[in-house]
Queue: 2 jobs
Job 1
Amino acid sequence: MKISRRVGLILGAVVIVAALVIMYVVVYSPQAGQRNDLNARLSRAQTLLPGLTKQKNDLGNQLASAQSSLEASRVHFPESVESIEYGEYLFEIATDCNVKLDKLSFPQPFSKTVGGVTYSVVSLSLPVSGSLANIFTFIDTIRTDERFASTEVNRISMTISGGSASASISVTIYAHKG
């Protein structure tokens, strides 16, 4: 059986076309699908990029602002509560305000965390006596003196008899822990 040249050429062309179709289905078609998927993902990423870049810049600005605020706040908080220094300051203020600071004892500081920042905290009771006006001056000085910027006046108990008064002033001193 002899195949004519024409049939041989047609059969050869069919085989070549079949091979090309099989190659397209096996190799090119999955790559085309992957390329389309990658192009879609690239398009989404390019759409998101400006928003994410802006968000990154905004978060960087917020971080810088928070760090600046933290550094500014640290100025108002001493690194540690030194009982000798605070004792000297309190006796100096008492003398300047014409009140008598009856006794002063510093308890052991304890730690307190507020908003992710840890403070060393000392709570004191300041028993003072003198005229009512001088006691108020003493309290106001503690509240406004820059050495006590990290001090909170919690409670005041007063006793008034005749022309003199006595008070027990409860304060809390905060110090920033490094």
Note: Strands lie at 100-101, 110-114, 117-130, 151-161, 164-176.
Job 2
Amino acid sequence: MKIVYSHVSNRNRGVNAKQYIELYALSNFLVKKNHPNFQTVFYGDEESLKLFSNIQFDNFEIISNNILKDIPRELWTLGKLCSMLQVNEPFLHIDGDMLLFKPLQNNFLNKDIICFHDESFFNHAIDNMQNVLVIQPEHCQGITPVSYNCGIFGGQDFKSIHYAINIVLNFVVQNKDNIANMIKEHKLKKNNYYFDLSILVEQVWLFQILKFLEKEIYSVVRIDNWYESFEKMIKDTGYIHLLSDKKNIYSEKIKDITNKLNIKY
């Protein structure tokens, strides 16, 4: 199976790409250690390919700018959807902040569609986002919105994944001015509840479309909240997803680990 990493510069919520180098290097090292038969490939724009060029990925590929140029910058995660469109075989996309200190189980690797975990406890925020945006692809209509964490995402059925991604990206491009105006209006109103449209598009719409295709979604782990359950999952599985500010909190620790393991980056 192919393991895909990706990064598009200036699309990661204002975080400098250089802060990710050690993290990606460690993540790639752990995947190759635990799954030596897997090939890792990094997809990026020109700037990212230069920044991450010393990491020991098996291969590097450029993400076509024909896809990227029409995606609103606010949708900061959609670069990785573009990378997946270029993979024509079963794959898993692994976020650079996902550290797998233990192997993934084979029973998940054989599934058509897998994600890291569902976020059903997060539905109130998803409802708020969808109420702000108003519009959505027609394939999503009538399908209950549930967020799925894509720290790990992919599976054997790459054709259905491509189909769903194309619908999402085409919808975003066709409605980019409308989406930009809705985001601007939301910011002007200074709404104080959580709002990240990238999550809505990548983690909700994409999966609604896969459900429209009658695909079953398998979760690698289960968590019931972002606190006790999340910490317990890490201890039980050895899978660490350094979400949000945890990247900065543990940046020196990550650098220390990569140095001790003599990981090249």
Note: The radius of gyration is 18 Å.
